[in-house]
Amino acid sequence: MRIQRRLPILLWVAAALALVACGGVSSGTTSPTPAADVGSGQLQGAGATFPEPFYTRAFYAYNQKYGQVSVNYQAIGSGGGIQQFTKGTVDFGASDVPMTATEIAAAGGDSTLVQLPTIIGVAAIAYNMPSVSKLQLDGTTLANIFLGTVKKWNDPAIQSLNSGVNLPGTDITVVHRSDGSGTSFAFTDYLSKVSPDWQTKVGKGKSVSWPVGVGASGNQGVGQQVKTTEGSIGYVELAYVIQSQLQYASVKNQAGKYVLASLEGATAAAASLTGVSPTNFSITNAACDACYPITGFSWVMLYTSYSDEAKGKAVVNLFKWLVTDGQNDSKDLEYAPLPTAVQQLALTNLKTIKANGKTVLS
């Protein structure tokens, strides 16, 4: 099975996390490449849980290549990442939603920061019904489940989408994020596009007032809550769904096709949007046969000026690698690589950053 094929990689990533969190590899490991002037130092980052498995693997790989640079990344949610970046307590922040005009102003204004996309992630609709191996949902029904108007699994609205499936008459337990979350933004952005009721009563955002359900922190928290609660449903980043071997539903896209969360669906959705920027980034409910509808870019926020020259160089060169060569390992962890045009956007933004008054990339 596909899940079984992924497990060795994901177990390896989990082991690598301990090394990354401790600031890299020890002096007893194989000597990394020392020649290139990529800067140096231990970089501190915080934010989105959505891309954490990818970042863990990528930062570890970069440390293996350039031992003078290590990264301590704390996955505390997109809202927390923006807060820490605004306070200046990290070298970079991470969010699955670009900062708003208000957030940018609070952080010092447009001239003080740049935002760049790093990877494409997919939010799967995880559920826990051992007796139901295949489940189909459309946007309206999904919105009504999270609004609390569809309360039981054998509700006619769900049954009509799953002909021939024996759905249990048990209550639905909704699980949502309790922290400020880019995954929540992608999910609520999608629901706002497909359900006028959701748009009117709840809307979209990293944090919203959930009508029903129980909250959990991070993608891992929501995934664990769904896994241990029979009859539950939640939205979880695909990498965590695969890692935890959760069930996940097919979702009806704008073209009327039921599609499972997948890299192919994410790539198709990303290809549907031209001119990607921090103000033009939504790829939810994209219009194509292959498009998976709950998909989004993940972003990092960097300062335009770093007083520490070595650390500033390290930040810029790390993310130059991440958005180019570093994309190569994304598919193994259920992330879609950035399209070439979006990589170029990221590289252009990196060229605006200075370290000790000097431009790092020309």
Task: Please supply descriptive tags for the structure shown above.
15 strands; 37% helix; alpha/beta; 13 helices; three-stranded mixed sheet; disordered N terminus; nine-stranded mixed sheet; 362 residues
What does this 3D model show about the protein?
The protein is α/β, with parallel strands linked by helices and 362 residues long. 37% of the residues lie in helices and 20% in strands. It has 13 helices and 15 strands. The protein has helices spanning 2-21, 52-65, 78-87, 101-106, 139-147, 156-159, 182-194, 196-201, 218-228, 238-244, 263-271, 309-322, 340-350; strands at 41-47, 69-75, 92-95, 113-127, 136-137, 173-177, 214-216, 232-237, 247-248, 250-252, 258-259, 295-303, 305-306, 354-355, 358-359. The strands form three sheets. Strands 1, 2, 3, 4, 6, 7, 8, 9 and 12 form a nine-stranded mixed beta sheet that branches. It has a three-stranded mixed beta sheet with strand order 5-10-11. Strand 14 (354-355) and strand 15 (358-359) form a beta hairpin.
The overall average pLDDT, rounded, is: 91
Radius of gyration: 20 Å
Question: H/E order of the elements?
Answer: HEHEHEHEEHHEHHEHEHEEEHEEHHEE
| Beta fraction | 15-25%
Question: What ranges have pLDDT less than 50 throughout 5 or more consecutive residues?
Answer: 1-30
Number of helices: 13
Globular, elongated, flat, extended or rod-shaped: what is the shape?
elongated
Record field, number of beta strands:
15
Helix content: 25-40%
**Broad structural category:** alpha/beta
| N-end to C-end Cα span | 46 Å
- Biggest sheet layout: 9 strands, mixed
